[in-house]
Every structure is written in structure tokens, then in C-alpha cells.
User: Fold these one by one.
Assistant:
Number 1:
Amino acid sequence: MLGKSRLIFPGEKVGCGAPLAGGPSQPHRASPSYGRTPGLLGDSRLETSLGGVGGHVGGAVPPVMFLLPQVLLAWSGGPSSSSMVWQVLEGLSRDSAKRLRFVPGVVYIDEGAACGQSPEDRARTLAEVKLALQTTGFPWHAVALEEVFSLPPSALRCSAQEAAGTEGAYKAAVDSFLQQQHALGTNGVERQSQHCAQDPQSPAGPPTTAQTQALSRLFDSVKTLTAKEELLQTLRTHLILHVARNHGYSKVMTGDSCTRLAIKLMTSLALGRGAFLAWDTGFSDERHGDVVVVRPMREHTLKEVAFYNRLFAVPSICTPALDTKAPEKASIHRLMEAFILRLQAQFPSTVSTVYRWVRVGTGGGGAGGVGPPASSVLEPCSHPRTSEKLVKAPRAGCAAGPRCLLCMCTLDVDTADSATAFGAQTSHLPQMQTPVTQARAAAGPCCCAGMGGAPGCCKREDPRAQVMEQLCYGCRVNMKDLPSLELLPPYILSEAQLRSQRATAEQEIREYLLGDSEDEAGTGES
Amino acid sequence: MGTWELSAGRPQSLLEVVVLLPASALSRSLDLPAWVLFRRSRPLPPLQDPTMPAPQCASCHKARAALRRPRSGQALCGACFCAAFEAEVLHTVVAGRLLPPGAVVAVGASGGKDSTVLAHVLRELAPRLGISLHLVAVDEGIGGYRDAALAAVRRQAARWELPLTVVAYADLFGGWTMDAVARSTAGSGRSRACCTFCGVLRRRALEEGARLVGATHVVTGHNADDMAETVLMNFLRGDAGRLARGGGLGSPGEGGALPRCRPLQLASQKEVVLYAHFRRLDYFSEECVYAPEAFRGHARDLLKMLEAARPSAVLDLVHSAERLALAPTARPPPPGACSRCGALASRALCQACALLDGLNRGRPRLAIGKGRRGLDEEGPPREPQPSRPPASEPVPDF
């Protein structure tokens, strides 16, 4: 099914490497009679779209081999992502009828510091994780969340995909493959350990105590669990993207299941991220430019994943998360989860109804649930075969419109004082202005210091207002719960400063600029 | 009078309002169980020392502060709060250009707190906006409930000297009252879905009433909590069409329909209650007898929990709804006219005519269900069907 849902565009930079055989311990193969791996990853759509420029060429023809994309699997140890990794293993093995044609790597983020785990627990978990990762046989990266403190500001910039010609990419890919082969020999294990050695942090040594403390301080300073979870997700995403960029992965696969995505959809709605639902929960998320985040497990409910894991004895590791043992009302995420699961018990189609807001159908009954009749929801809004009710509204390139600093979506705030929800939170009415600002300076939490940008508002902390202005509505509301922005990792603060300096400079020279300088500015920014 | 009526059963947002009144004044106005509930549920303001006197009003600095605004935490006296509330409604109307000068405005009055506050505020602002007001009340024919509400509306109309028109379902819709509809839909073994009928028919009735008085605009008292609940509900039911129609500040009035708007849309429910309290407005505060069956109850519970977790959740939801990017076919088709009554319709028959058709034929579910509503996917029969937001709030409103 080559079409708009292809994830590889002509001329895209792809990694190279030989498709790996299954790991040292072959997975238990209880495939159905026709030999096809059950699950979405056996779906023709995903396979073809990840199949690279060569497509389905029979046999191991050498030229195709060099253009296989590298895909990073984000593994958290939980059931969904373990199931995803397992299915990738199955799909790549020589016995499967339709082999997946990409080169996977696995990344695990150690979030123990943010969750308040003791160093002994962390070390124990990490040992288990490493053992599990080694048995997969893929190149793996175990990265601690403390690495965010050494991320460069370029992690927050979305770079456009390279528009190199196919020939150039092919030649470069062949060259680097030959070099790699020459340097390493063909031993997969050694290549894996070289990957580990290429990590900025050696897997044997834990992160420095200073970084761990800085991270704990950051998370302890956040007032609400909701904001903590959002911050954790943001940092985790940035870190995974950074790892992907460093090691040349063009795609990242996350193991979000249908249930989780339905919950995430409702949670994003409640957090004020209604404009970005299609990005947050859609099949592919291209807002980061060169690295695309893909959610292959999105058609499977948690129940199906649980059955699959049990039937095929998929190993998973249980690690405590930020909201483990938290009461139900502690955060919006927990609330929504409990609510949706409770409603699902009463109205069994709740999850699928919510999920269908961002469903991608295949036109006649996809791998997932039964779809509605074709005339109702299917619409070639921008994809010929999608059936989404929500679209990714601004579809322009990276430089169109200012982007949120943290989530990299186009800003969805309008001017204060307008007759909208945002305006209602930032408006100051004339007769109340002077006494209000005085009262606000005296009173404790001040909503306008969080929102920023309102006229006549006393900007108590310039750096804070500076950062706030560059955030979308949802991120602003989250940052309100973070009293001091200095604890944020330096890459965020320096990128914020850079952007605001750029904006001020542009303000000054605006009258001298001819036409639209956005495109030039975009390509200049790396 | 300024009695603070609390309805039994479902806890109201009234109980969560933080009001800095001395306990003696409070105990006089509440009966014992309600007072106990109130004391237990009242969250203490974080920075307040109970032994210290209440702070000064933040705006006039003269009077003692009587309340803290739920959204901003600002301490204000009663008069300043009411002034601020009215100013914000005025700002919404002016900035959104909702009611041009010279408009004849039909206010949907149900006797509940929202429409009472709306009528009062608009009456205060009418000179500034240059509009004239008419009250339109709808009698759905729900025994034991609507009669008392209508009595409240009549008292209000008399006190404020506003013209009142009452339109009844029985007159407009061929003898069908809500009780009759409920009886007719009750036997099928599914949930009754009265709210579907009531919501659709009430819109029609309101439109008819507005035409009778010669109005140019229709306003209803939906507040921010109502909007947030509607968003949640439509999302949970996959109702993209309703979401596309409902976002924003109201419909501009396509086809022959009158433009509708909701001036209280950005005011939170707690503030509406506070305003009614400080202005000593008389309203009717019981919930509809059919309300417990409505799906909206789930959305309401969820909203209450969300608000407890994050106070700005209501406005965040409204913001999300405003910014939803819906696919073109998820939006409803451009409206035409109903072949029977000439009202706005996206199909051959408008929803009201379709529902009445079903009722008259003895098949009340005719217009509710998969065949007619392509976007509806709910399979299990015991679910309530998708509908316009039903009027199942504890305080009924349009």
C-alpha cells in the first residue's frame, strides 16, 4: 500500500545495515497456521511503509539492504512496549512469511531519579533491563533521565528532512556500511557493544550524583502530580529524540496501545491541548522534523496485549512510575484513566469510540476494529486512506509559525483580551487594573505571571515571562505549577533565550526585510 | 429572598464555594445536614489564619472582603465582585460582537440559576448595550417540576418588569408533553433517552417563542462548566458533528434560524452561584426528574473531579474545544430547510420533526439510532443515544 501513509519519502536519509537474524534465544514461535505474525506489525501497511525505497524485492538483494531504515524502539519495560519489541523480533526472524524490513534498536530510559527510587533499586532494575535487552539481540541504549542536563539546545529544534537525491543517499549509505563492516567484522554482538560504548554515558557507570540531585530537585519543586507527569513525558521525549538523532535513527516506535491512546486523548483535551490531538495520538507524529514518532500498537487494546503476552510468554519488567500508588484524584492522568476504564465497564464501546477520533483506517476494515461505513468518516483530508476526525491543522514546514518550546507544536494562543478561554484568563478590565496589579503583587499565586503577555501586567521575572511566551497553552498551564524555571535543564533555558533574542532582533529589523523571511530563517537554523 | 436552596441528593457545586462568611450567618441560612456537609467539604484557603480578620477587598479597599474568586483567588467584597462579573460578561458580549445595539433579545428563562443570573445581568447591561429583553419560558410538561420552575420565572418577570412568553410543548408539538414522551419510550427496555427529545424539542420551542415576540437574537445561560461538560460528553460519544457546531461563542444563525449566543460562556458555575447569592436572586434549584438517567451525569462527575485536580480545567477544556481541528467530513453538511416545518435542517427533516414523527408512529426510536446518524457508533442498546446536550443539570437551563 504505497501511498500517502508511506513513512519514507524519496531521498530520505536512511541508515544502513544488514537485517539481523533473531537473537541468541529464538522466541517461541506459535504463529498461526499461515505463518504470519499476529498483530499490527504483520500488517502489510506498516511493512510496506517501512520497507524502504526498494519495497518488496524477493530475496536478499544487496542494493536493497543498504537502504533499510533504522527504527528506534522505545521500550519502557511495560506490557505494551514489550509486546511491540517481541513482535518486531518475530517479524524480523527468517521464518516469518512477510519479513519486516528495517533495522531496529531499543532504547530504555531510566527514570528512577524522577520517581524517587533509591539507588539500589535503580541498579537492580537496570541490571534486569540490561539482561532483557541483551537477549533481544538488537543494539540497545540504556539512558538515564539525568542525561537531559547534558542535552544540547538543538534537541528542541525541528530540522527539516534532508532533501538529498536518492543517489547521494544511496552512495553515502553504501560507503558507511562498508566502513562499518570493515571496522567491526560481521559480529552482531560486537556492534551492539560498540553502540553501547558510543553512549555519552557508559552503561557501567551511573549518572553523577549532582545530576541526580538536580533532577530530584526539579521534580520535587513541581507542585502538582499532573505537571510532574507532563514534565516527565516532555523530558523523556526529548531524550529519546536526541538518542535517535545521535545514532541515525529516522523513526521512533512507541508502544502506546488503543486504551492508552484513548486515555491520552481525553487527558490532552482536559489539559488544553485540543489543537494538537492529532499529533499526540495519531499514527505518525512528524512535528520533530527529521525523526518521526510512530505508534504501531495503537490498534490493540490493553486486553489484547495482555492476552498476547500471556499466550506467547512475552517478558516484561515492572518498574514503579511517577504515579504508582497515587490516589485516584491525584492527577488528571489518573482521573481520566480511572474514569475511562470505569465507563468502559458500563459502555463497552467507550474506548473504541474515543480512539476513533484519530483512527487511521485502511478503507475496508483495517487490522483494528470494525469501521463505520465508508461514506461517513473516511475523508481524504490530506491522506487518501485515512479516516480521522481530527487533522493536523497547520501542515506547513518547520518554520511556519512560532513553535512551542517544549512540545514543538505551533502555538495556539491568541491575543489576550479576546473573547476566548485564553482571553478570559489573561484579560484585565480597565476599571480594575491598577488595584488588581497591586493586589496580585501582594497575593501569592498570580495567574498572570503564569500566562504572561498581558498588557499592563507586572512582569516580575523576566526570564519566566520570556519562557512562558514561547509555550503553547497546555505547556503554559503546566509551567504554572513550576514555581522556579531555573531548575529546568539548561538546554531549555538557553534555547528560550536564543529564541527570544531572535524575536527581538527580528522586531528591530522587520521594516527592512523584504517579503517572507521565514523560509530563509528556517533553513539557516539547524 | 436570599435563601440558599440546596437540592437533596446530588452534591452541588454550591457546597464547594469558598465564602468567607461568619459561621453564624451561614448557619442561619442552611439546615443542619447541609451545614455539616458544607463544613466538611469546604476547603480552607491556603494562606488564611482563622484567627485573623478577613482581608480587605482588593478592588475598593474599603469594605471587608466577603469572598475569594474561584479562578484568581482574589479577595473581593460583594459589590465589587458583582461589578467585576458584570464587566466580564459585558466584555464577552462586546469583544465577541454577540448582541449589536438595537437587538431584541429573547432570553431563554427556565427559572434556574443560570438563566436567572443571565436575565439579571443583561437587564443591568441593557442600557449600555442598547438592547431590549424578553423572557421566553418553555413548558415541557414535566409534572411536579416544571410548574414550580415556571412559577419562579413568573415572579422574576413581575419583579423585573420584563415581558414573559410561555410556550408549551403540548401546544407546539401536537399534544406531546415530556411525560407522555417518557411513557412512550419507557417500554422498550432501553434507557429512556428523554433528554434527547427534550433537548431537541426545547430548541425548537425556544425558536418559536423568540419568533412570537419578534426577537432578533436568542441567548441562553450556558456557563463554562456546561460547555466543558458538553465537550467531554461529545468526545466520549464520538459526536464530531455536534462538536463542530458547538464550539465558539454560539451560532451566527444560518438559514432562517435566529443567531444564538451564550454570554455567560466564560463564567464558571461557582461564580454564577456567587453572583446569585450576592444579588439575592430568587431561583429554582431542583433537578429534573429525568436527569439521573442522562449521560451528561458522567461528564459532570468527571468535570468535578478534574476541577478538583486542577482548578483551571474548565477553561482548559473550553480552550481545547475552541481549537479542535476537525476533518472536513467530520463537520456537519451545510444546512438546508426542513421539508415539513421549514426550520434549519441538515437532512430532509429537521431533528424535531423526525423525532415527533417517530413518536407519532409509535416508534419513538425511529430518529435515534445508527441508520439516521451516521456518526453514531454505539452498539449496546442500553446506552443513551447521542443528542443535543440534554437539560439534565440540577438547575435546569437551556
Note: Residues 335-366 of chain B form one domain.
Number 2:
Amino acid sequence: MVLQPSERHYGDWNHRRLGPWCSPTGSPAPLSCETGCGEGSWILVCRLLVPTQVSLLSMEEDIDTRKINNSFLRDHSYATEADIISTVEFNHTGELLATGDKGGRVVIFQREQESKNQVHRRGEYNVYSTFQSHEPEFDYLKSLEIEEKINKIRWLPQQNAAYFLLSTNDKTVKLWKVSERDKRPEGYNLKDEEGRLRDPATITTLRVPVLRPMDLMVEATPRRVFANAHTYHINSISVNSDYETYMSADDLRINLWNFEITNQSFNIVDIKPANMEELTEVITAAEFHPHHCNTFVYSSSKGTIRLCDMRASALCDRHTKFFEEPEDPSNRSFFSEIISSISDVKFSHSGRYIMTRDYLTVKVWDLNMENRPIETYQVHDYLRSKLCSLYENDCIFDKFECVWNGSDSVIMTGSYNNFFRMFDRNTKRDVTLEASRENSKPRAILKPRKVCVGGKRRKDEISVDSLDFSKKILHTAWHPSENIIAVAATNNLYIFQDKVN
Amino acid sequence: MMLSKGLKRKQEEEEEGKEALAVDTWWLGPGHPAVAHAPPAVASRSLFDLSVLKLHHSLQQSEPDLQHLVLVVNTLRRIQACMAPTAALPPMPSLPTAPGIADNLLASSDASLSASMASLLEDLSHIEGLSQAPQPLVDEGPPGHPTGGAPPSLGALDLLGPATGCLLVDGLEGLFEDTDTSMYDSELWAPASEGHKSSPEDGPGKEEAPELDEAELDYLMDVLVGTQALERPPGPGC
């Protein structure tokens, strides 16, 4: 299959190199307490909800959703299952934060502008745009419902005034354009002010329509729909550093798309066996290298990571590198494979490392060393003795994500009981924090949490048996250059900021 | 959901000297005979039953999560590899639906079932002492569909619903089919095999069929006749 040249360039891509993320001072954004993610350094900036009613309101009446934010989002809790957040992603500047939910909606928040009068409000995010990205569909051939849940959102780098993002459900990827309109034309000759056609016979003079200011309106329009290319459920999308292509990965295949072409894609990975009886492994996540447009990685349910080079062959079934850690015999159990299944894989911003999340750990791998990770962090090792129960209630299949901070010095991932964990790679210190309404007051410093494994439980510790496994932090995001994090807990979005900032 | 207090994990070497797979048994409850001092085979068996249940439940979804399915099947294979080739185990209380599900799996397998799954099921029938009692054949659907080698008991086909029934008729291969275009006619009122546990996802009528008595049948007939009378176009003079 030959890729046809684009008929038109997708804008003038600004091929500016995404260099190392730095604070304005030029050094990597430090965390407070000089030791990194030390205790008592994170504060809650705001907690955001997107109730169903607010979304419907903004879509039907086409009003400025920014006005809704303050009055609705903070206090109302009439949430439905459709409101459960299923993905969170900052854009490349951190100015925008997008969430997708089970109801197929995308909500974009924008950072409050810096204001001399309200300095304390800097860092807060308000609703910028809300739109229905995907609707439930029905596959008539298989008699199957296709969920509208948004599995992933990925931003494209900004190249003009508009913002572009990719959103995907199980089967279809869409490219959305989000743009602002603050002017409207007035003074048409053939239409009156309400838009009704005028009788040409009544027109005696001509005028030139002029643009007049109007209330800011943010509109989202679907620009491309990439459909019918995935038999299995899409779990990942990743924008290539060439800004012309992206890939979408499902359980057994990975496809490469050009943004301009929606009716065809390249299949670059296919692990479907000729005989489906031999199926023992599926693809769980995939991502392009941040700088090398020919390189990508994908992870599997057997705890392996394959790095592929698209220059080697059209079909990247043969990996260039294969990352796998040998199984620890002392920890072997019936559940070894399940807990080794990788739920997320992320390149570091530098492109030198990859981070993987399996059920109990986060691992950092050096691309130059395949036989074992260079760092392993225990997220919640106290669950190792509970695997049977977690298997019974299916929690063992939960897919946690992991994220790097802007300088690749700290990694973060979620856990149960609305806990999330940060690991400082330099100091080897770690902290457990909680995203919950009860424990978070705006601007109050988050208190580190501790899980008591056995023996005496201290006053502020929580025992393993008291953990709430229905409250899980699966989706988190870290601002690309500042110490601002977004944590999704069911239908709540928490924005935390490092105090020093 | 809260986890109850855990018991100490038990790890024992297997008879053949294979590396033992640790199985924590605390979740069975302190009063359960399989706990603490029970041999790991018992815990393995409980885990096996649970995994079979999970597989069954997964297959009942309209579109099973492939990753979940593959992981459960692989876990089943691991457990089965540990359990076989042991001698016949002492009868242990297992989840009531497990034998029924085993029947279903046996019933719906055909010649294309993978070797590993086939040996798994053979061991299962050996272990459980199940016999493949002949049951009335259910119409499998379009002629020409490969059914050679299928065991006689196919009454379980309808129990799993049209979608999952299709998957299981092809054995494990059918689990992962790209496109399932074969819709099997299933007799809604065919008798179910014993021990089947109905679930909310079951289609109408499957779980009801074996338990209808004459009075209920009469009532249903009345309702149907009454409905038809309502739908009958009004005749002259009405």
C-alpha cells in the first residue's frame, strides 16, 4: 500500500524541537523541599466536576462554558456513570487540560491567566470547551454495541490559533479542532440580522459586512474521522514527532495513519496468530519515540516491551529491541503473568528511557539495556498477598497509567483508595497522597498517607484491609513544564500544585 | 470492597518437584476446609473453578475483553498444568456452577478445540468424574458448519445465549474470532443441563425454560393468546 502524498500541507507545521522542559530560569523545574517530592509540598488547586447537565447545557444552547464553571462545577455532585473520567491529558504547553469520560464527552479546561489582582488564582483551570466526541454505535455485522467511552486523548502541537486533539473510543479515532470565535460578521446584504433571507427587491443600497466583537465562543468541530481500521479494541494512540502521522493500537494490531487520509492506514504491527488457538499475548499500550519519528514501542500482556524501527521493514513484526525482566522465582504464583501485564508505557521526555506500569510496580528502562529495568518502584507491594482476592473481584485486571514530570526526575502513578504515588528518581524518596474531597481543602497542603501492612497501626495510617478498592486512580497527568498535576478520581478531576510554585 | 484479614500464605513443593506456585487461601474464609492446612491442590482446584467461572462470565459479554480473556485462559492453563497429572482428588466442595460450566465447555467443543484446552477438559472430566451423558441434540444452525467430533451433549448451547453460544461452539478458537457471522438458531425452551446458574445477561427464556410448570405455561399461553386477540384487527361491528 503506497501512501499518497498529501494534497495540502496540514498547516505550516512549526517543526520546533520540543527541547528539555525547563522552568523560566532554565533549569529543570525543581520540586519543593530541595529533595524532590518531599512531604507537605503539594496543595489542591481546584476540584472539578463535569455533571451531565452542564455538558448538555453547553452543547444545546451554545453558551460560553467558561461562565458555567464557577457556579456549577465545584459544588454539584449529581454525577452519573457517564461522567467517570477515562483519560486525562495536558497539551504541549500545559495551558489546556483535556479529559474524556465514559459518556463519550471531552471536556477541555484552560488555565487561568495570570492576573495581578488575583495572583492566587494562577494555576486554576476552568472549563474551556465541552463537546460530545463519540456516540454509542452498533456494529450490525457482529450485533455488538460499540462503547462511546473515550479511551485516550492526545494533543497535537499547536501551529496556529486553533487547538487540535485526537480522541478515540474502542473503534474510531477522531481529530477535533477547537477554536475560538470572538468576532462575527454583521451587515450582510442578503440576510437580515437574524439570518433570514431578505427579498432582493427590497435592497436599495449595498454595504460591506464588518466584523464586530462578540462574546467569546469556543467551538469544537470534527475535522477527520478515522474509522473501520480496528477489529479489536483500541487501547492507545500516539502522535508522531513528524506531526504528520500517528498510530493507533488495539489488542492485536497497530496501524499508522496520516492525518490527511482517513480511508486507509498502514498496518505496522500484527501479532494475531494464524491459528487463534495459539493466542496467548495481546498488545496493551504503544507510543512513538518523542524525537525519532521512525521508532516506537509497544507493550504486551506478558510484561514485555518491544521497540521497533519503521525503517527496518514495512511490517514491524520483528522488533529491534526486546525488553523483558526475568521472573523472580521467589515471587512466582498463578498470578505472575497477570501482574506482569503492562498497563501503560511512556517514553521519557528525553527519549532515553521508557517507563512501564504493571500491577504492582513501575519500572524505568534504559533503551540501551534490554535484559532488566534500571529502576523498579513498588507501588503497593502490600497487595502481593491479596492477589487471589483481587483476582476474584477483577481488580487485578485494573489498568493503571503512569506519567513523567517535565524533567523526567519524578514519576507518578495511581493506586487504590484514591491514593496516588510519586517517586523521585534522584533521591529515591517516594510519597503517597490522596485525592479525595474529605481530605482536601483548597490551598491546604496535602498530607502524605501511609498504608500499614501489619502489626501496630499508627494513628494516621490506614490498614490494608481498610482500603477501598472501588476508588482507584487510573488516570493522571503532569504539566509539561511545571509542577502541576491532574488526578482523575471517578468523576472528579483534582488539580494539585507544588507549593513552591 | 474491603478485603478481609489475610492468612499466612502457604507454599509447598509439588510431588514431581516442580517449582511450587504460591496460592494464598485466606480468601476462602477461615472456616473453609481448604484453608491453612489443606493441600495446595485444594486451593488450586478452587482457583481453577473460579477461573472457569471468570471465563464463562467473560464469554457472556457481548464483546469479551480480549486481554482479560487471554489472561484468564493462560491462568487456567497454568493451574491445569499444576493440577495434572495428579491422581483423582478427594471430592471438595466447589462452586455449584463449575460442573455445569464444565459440561457446557465439554458439550460445545468440537474437533477444532486446541490440544491444550482439550487435555484440560479431559483432565477436568477425569477429576470430577463427569460422564458425558447423551442429551438431545439441539439444532446447531446453518448446515455445513463443522460439527464433526462434537460430543453428543449440546443442550447447553442455548444456555449461553446466541452470542456466546456461537463462540463456544467453535471452542477456544471461536473465542477470538474476528468476525462472528454465524448465528445459531437456539431453541429457547430446550432443557438446560443441571447445575447451570442463570445470570442477568442471559437472554429471555433460557433460565426460565427448565423451571416452568404447567400452571405457568398455561398462564403464558393465556397472555400470548390475549395479546394476539388485542393485535387482531377489529372486525366489523367492533
Note: The radius of gyration of chain B is 22 Å.
